[in-house]
Amino acid sequence: MPIHASPNAWVLETHSTAYALGINASGALVHRYWGPRLPYPADYPPARDFGEWSSFYGRSEINLEEYPAYGGASYREPCFKATFADRVRDTVLEFRSSEVQGDELQIVLEDAFYPLGVTLHYRALEAFDLLERWVTVHNFGPDPIRLERIFSAQWHLSILEDYRLSHLGGRWLEEFQLVQEPLTHGVKVLESRRITSGHQNYPWFALDRADAPALEERGELWFGVLEWSGNWKATFERTEFGSTRVGIGLNDWDFALLLGEGESFVAPKSVAGYSSTGFGGASRALHRRVRSSLPHGDAPHKVLYNSWEATGFEVNEAGQMELAEIAASLGVELFVMDDGWFHGRNSDAAGLGDWWPDERKFPHGLEPLISRVNAHGMDFGLWLEPEMVSIESDLYRAHPDWAIHFPTRARTEMRNQLILNLAKLEVQDHLIARIDGLLSSLNIKFIKWDMNRNASEPGWDGAQEPRALWVRYVEGVYRVWDTLRQRHPNVTFQSCSGGGGRADLAMLTRADQVWPSDNTEPTTRLEIQHGASYVLPACALEAWVTDMESERMPPFGRGESALRRGKMPLEFRFHASMCGVLGIGANLLHWDESEREQARALIEQYKAIQPIVQNGELFRLKSPIKGAFSALEYLSPDRTEGVLFAFRTHLSEPVVLPPLRLAGLEREALYQMDGLEGPLSGTALMNVGISLELKDFSSVLWRFYRV
Ligand code: DGJ
What we know:
Largest sheet: 10 strands, antiparallel
Strand content: 25-35%
Radius of gyration: 26 Å
Oligomer: single chain
Number of helices: 13
Bound molecules: (2R,3S,4R,5S)-2-(hydroxymethyl)piperidine-3,4,5-triol
């Protein structure tokens, strides 16, 4: 029974965690508990009331309100702010009723005077050990209500404790970098203001006690994400009374939504959890949840080839066919043609919006190429950037007003392109018709959906409330994706946004995978994949083997940059990519026969381990950001077999590597492991570990089985 309910107190239980809330003596809906599941309902602490203190210091200063609104004597980060038609901008939410429907608890709050309702939704995801929270806002009256902040949840932590905040920062080519810092007095804000969930911050947080920090597989951690693909905000507030609260939801920067008579708005979901097994336990819970909501579930991803790094914009029928032939001979299953194939697209200066084959490059259309790819036994995939328009395009000439802009301001071009206003129904319908046309007329099985710039001059001509653009645009993107998915359920979609700029969980209910970064240099890629793995499972992270061997980008907030020269071994590059969804992006014309032979064998090996990597449980044994020796372990869902990857990048001195201790094994069971003579017990493998000898830029992939 995941929800225990009485008229004024509720406990949501998952497999091993619990969350409790209730109405206190002053009638306020307050937080009671978040942590390990307790044996009896009576174990959960009561709803505390700090009435006397509250009247002295202000309403929500000490009270741990579940969903604080801006109003009254309240100075904390609120979850909700609205302005009513008479310009009153003070909200007083009172508890009205509650209802349990299966695994969902709904708590209905209403304003004391105005016809405004806010329903708080809570869901206990028992099997995933996670909670979901979101809200629905209703306008029951005739006058419009302007919503100015709507968070999905406020998460409270135990008071009078010091916490450390972990989050993922980054930028283009260096996404998903783990940042850890003490949470000090005041408010720390993480957000996106770019119309996508963004490269700069990922909507994930984790908090642990400063005096008992969580480790990879040990310790307590409270964590959460927001399922939203646009502007978002998370506030981490540490008050002078020692309470710690996290507000998370839509960004209120440059934001307003007008709710007309009888209208409702559903805010995105915040998913959160408590782990008693450190960061590893937290990420495995999120992985299970992400995998369960992928459009094609745990179906294996095809090994793909993508032409972008090989050909750039120089694509044509003959060149693509030549690459496809080699790709097929290596065991590639899906051939994806990237940017450069459509009308007028010879550089990034033109063509976006004109989604038909460039007559010069593909004089007979795409059909001959697709047939040839299919004849080689591969599926065909195509790159699109549907949300964009180039000034130099027929689409822009026909519909200049479809681009997001302010009529009196210059339209800032980034990568020579503008963003179509997907808040407009006609724009959505146009894109649906265009892409539906491509998918219906050609045998396309995979779409790489790119989105390469951030919004600016966010005007929306004709809208009653143009500041709603940030939200209505994202809803428009969802409608286009959802319609296409429904019409073409067998097509796999990848979400790309200049790399990992839109890799959030809401996209991953529509896309089967994301492209986490344009940085495919394998050592930095290991770090990017490491950061992404705090939230995203391997099956959602496409990873190409390429020829990229650039100098390392200056690290994000960490030590000096390391310069690497010389060719990185092909095996090392493959192993790094095999930790995600293996793809190839190298120029295959440059690979000699021995490299192709090696690639063939590695692809075959990957296909054998793919179910374990894709659907298994991840244990991060050694972090690539903490040293030159890193390792990952994937265990099959029934934990009877596994795969171990270990990498050594560059150590300045020849150093003996420390023993590598495995995780998640049964202590008494025996395991036979590649590279070792006889079987060893789980206890030995987890406590003594194994010794590896690795040279600079070498790696191992070992399989193991329970015997
Ligand atoms: C950005 C993507 O991240 C790349 O992989 C590639 O598709 C380019 N766009 C194409 O313009």
